[in-house]
Amino acid sequence: MKRFAPYLLILPGGLWLVIFLVVPMVFMASVSTQEGDVVNGFVQTFNFSVYGDALVQYQTQFLRSAGYGLVATVISIAMAYPVAYWIAFKGGARKSTYLLLVLLPFFVSFVLRTVSWKFLLADDGILLSPMKSMGLVPDDFHVLQTTTAVIGGLVYNYLPFMILPIYVALERVDPRVVEAAQDLYAAKRSAFTKVVLPLSLPGVFAGVLMTFVPMTADYVNAGILGGPQNTMIGNIIQTKYLVNNDYPTAAALSFTLMAVMLIGIFAYAKALGTENVLEAAAR
Amino acid sequence: MHDSRTNPAFLRGMTQSRSVTRRDAFRMAGLSAAGLALAACGVQGKKVAAPQKDAVAEYWAAQKKNGTLRFANWPLYIDKDGKKYPSLDLFTKDTGIQVDYQEAIQDNSTFFGKVQPLLAANNDIGYDLMVLTNGLQLSKAIELGYLVPLDHSKLPNFAANAAPKVKNPTWDPNNTHTIPWTVGLTGIAYNPKYVDEVTSMEDLWNPKYKGKVGMMLDTQEVANFGMFALGIDPDTSGEADWRKAGEKLKQQRDAGLVRKYYENDYVDALARGDVWITMAWSGDIFQQVAEGKDLKFVVPQEGGTIWTDNMCIPKTAQNPVDALTLMDYVYQPKIATMLVEYINYITPVPATKDLVLADAEKATGDDKASLEQIANSPLIYPSEADQAKLRSYKALTSAEEKIFESIFQPVTQG
User: Fold this and answer.
1) What distance in Å separates residue B103's CA from the closest CA in chain A?
2) Global pTM?
3) Best interface-test mutation with B: which of A49, A239, A246 has the largest number of B CBs within 10 A?
4) At CB < 8 A and 24+ separation, what contacts does B291-296 make?
């Protein structure tokens, strides 16, 4: 019995992953190399050229998505770190209240939050209309359907996923190590860069994992806030699945996206030193 | 053991490169067991022949009225009084059938994408009656045998009251699977505050309205407008015409004229001032005008698109008799009048015009004015001359559809 106990522990989660992740993945891998259409049926032909074709055809959207994801991630770190730092070290007794405030937007539906941007930022809306009449911005200025709007939407929607892991990492930093650094004549600044920052990097890494990946694959923000030149790869995949019923291309694009992101993440982990970072991120 | 080289099945397989490749690849991957399972799910769709008369009778003979009906329709597409639907309440009173009415359809392709796997697997989609536009998805649904063929002996009101024009449409000969809910036009809507009078398609390409032009995301809609702008008749168009239209549309986009390729949400964008001039559906704009917005709708001189939203019963419907009952019920002029007075699209029941006028007689003030406007509107009761300019979506085969989408999708999803 003792020998089997560890396996019993992994059983529920393991089964869950096998049924809902591994099996569908194998199916989708098979679908990606089929040929045909929804009316005449799809036939397995091991048509691997679909991968190359799709990558070439949609390289613009791939690059654009990676770019948006990257910029949005950097902005998220820049915004999330100070917030997390403040809550962890200056939050005092109200830490949990502040954390709740960070999470509060999640109690409102994702789509509703994004759609509300449309009302706020409409060309003749409550924000831009007065700015235009005061002459602060030119008459043809607009925010919606621009790259700025899409990246802004991404940052807004995923920011808490960056704040929380950084907060957790900072929370673990023992204030005494900072004191120790200062006892050893470290200035406040170098106590931060040499002690606190390195200790919190695993949190940043976890935050990047939790934001960059979904941001790059996101399609809601580009769909609602973007214009004709802001289509992301997620929108293409959605169209291929739901509009064209072109399941092979959609599956091939999904796998390509997954592969690219896995490679990117591993390269990133390697650059930061895989062992401690991956382990720490899992904590 | 059997030597596979002398196995006739294997030799036969040798002449078909596909099966050999499949076998070899799986052997390499060591996935032969999984391969068997996957080969079985290779075929996801299958074309079906037109239904036989006996089969139709047999299907309906086996069905009975259940007293409930689940109806999937588009937003703002039925008369509403607060939270109530007066026409459906009357229906329940007259027939004893309770209706669960859902505004579940925002977009043909998305809705079809959602229900298609369920229908392919013969599962209930949660609705007994749905409304689909004549277009790629409806054609697919018919071809794949997803729709129940209708028992026209149970549709006497349709036979008596439907306009001759809506009977026997090209996409569904003899109304075998569908009858219309409403008919509408795609034209140009604009805000006269910013835009001079519009008569031509060229105004959508006018540099004056840079960044303030709305176009539609639906490829068939946008393609028709590209073709109209070039003087091409969509009905007789071919690949070369589509390429020209694609170029014309791309040029419009790359010049920064197009703000966005919209779905149903173009109405909000127009009302909020994000766009000044946009492709639009007639009834939407009529409703906005009735609410007091200063907007105009025109069918440009080059032409406009006419489309029909059709009621149909999915093959896995739990309450098909109840669905059929409602389909016929709304063809009573009295009920059709209630609908058109709210929906403001073209009604398939021409007799409603006099009834709307009669209602206007009885009404007073604003109600009277708006009812008179409806009865006299060329957008709801279009003239023969207007209708001559109108074209439907081009009917496409699966092979044509691939080419068509590969030309127009890169325009709307740049």
Assistant:
1) 17
2) 0.82
3) A239
4) B294/B191, B294/B192, B294/B193, B295/B189, B295/B190, B295/B191, B295/B192, B295/B270, B295/B271, B296/B189, B296/B190, B296/B191, B296/B192, B296/B198
Kindly state the average pLDDT of the residues B289-316: 93
Structure tokens at A199: 């200790």
Per the DSSP assignment, residues forming a β-bridge with B261 are B215
Q: What are phi and psi of B140, to 5 degrees?
A: -60, -45
- What percentage of chain B reaches a pLDDT higher than 70? 89
Pairing of strands B213-216, B68-72: unpaired
**Domain residue ranges of chain B, discontinuous segments joined by +:** 4-40, 53-184+308-349, 185-306+388-412
CATH architecture of B53-184+308-349: 3-Layer(aba) Sandwich (3.40)
Tell me what ipTM this predicted complex has.
0.82
Low-confidence ranges of chain A (pLDDT < 70): 1, 273-283
Instruction: Tell me the chain A residues in contact with residue B18 when contact means C-beta distances shorter than 8 Å.
Output: 43-45
What pLDDT is attached to residue B184? 94
Instruction: Tell me if the domain spanning B185-306+388-412 has CATH number 3.30.1220.10.
Output: no
> Domain A52-282, what fold?
MetI-like fold (1.10.3720)
Question: Looking at beta carbons, which residues of chain B come within 8 Å of A38?
Answer: 44-45, 116, 140, 144
Q: How far apart are CA B404 and CA B246, in angstroms?
A: 9
Model confidence pLDDT, tens digit, residues B125-152: 999 999 999 998 999 999 999 999 999 9
Å between B259 CA and nearest CA of chain A:
6
